[in-house]
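Sample log: Deoxyribose-phosphate aldolase.
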Amino acid sequence: MIRLVRAGPVRSYSRHMPAPAFRRLLDDIGPVDAVGVDERVAKYTTRSIKKQSKVFGLKLAVTMVDLTTLEGKDTPGKVASLCQKALCPHPEGDVPQVAAVCVYPAMVKHAAKHVKGTGVRIASVATAFPSGQAPLKTRLAEVRQAVADGADEIDMVINRGAFLAGEFAGMQDEIAAVVEACGDATLKVILETSELETYDNIRAASFLAMRVIRPGDFIKTSTGKTSANATLGNNQVMLDAIRDFYLETGTEIAMKPAGGIKTAKQALQFLIAVKETLGDAWLTNTRYRFGASSLLNDLLRQLETQRTGAYQAPWTFTEDSGGY
């Protein structure tokens, strides 16, 4: 059963954040018990999942992967290989396809040739990813073009400078403009948690974003392009925010941790957090995703180990295809 809990002292706000604006927001949404969050997520790492439950969890994690390539050297050929792996992660195993492929806007049309209509969605980072430092007009044009080329989902970055300056309305106006530019495409709002500095800031940014996006849209931890990315701690703060927002409004917001989740063991710990915070209703790729490039290979290795009883070498599965 989901419970609304707001406990603990207010954490110190960012040194960039105007105190009155931030304090008013915290009075509204409630602060984070940082010690409690850290103690709670530490317990997730002690859970043990065995046999069929482990296989179920590993396959579930596969269905939640946004298989990602975001490099300056991306080519249509590399995207084609990525799409093949997304559609058939393991040609010899009973392994489901992933949720989406995630590419730069210029690669959307190439991904569409391979996965459009297959059930694997096309996600594209936009709005001057990863910095977001471009005029709003340019960022919105990029979103519209990605959608026109076939993107089913858009991953945008928030204006962290506006948030840290306490310009909350301006930040929300920009998100709302991207929502409109997306049309029917799903939006994922990237907070870039490492640049927000504190759990209270992460909770605040989560609420600000959730108040202007639509049911079924996502909040997302990171771009994967900074030194610190998704952690069980910042994931938990955002899950708690989603729970509290749902209890307050009845609006179901989805979640995507991204960056730094490389092993099946980590993925299972994140899924435990989802189940214990939001329940089974969020254990689906319409409400939870992993943004990752290398996670899928480790999930496949662990599934093959469960299937054959033999431990698999790290190079068993290639980076860009599902074959050996």
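Observation: Residues 121 and 220 are 17 Å apart (CA to CA).
Observation: Residues 1-13 have pLDDT under 50 and may be disordered.
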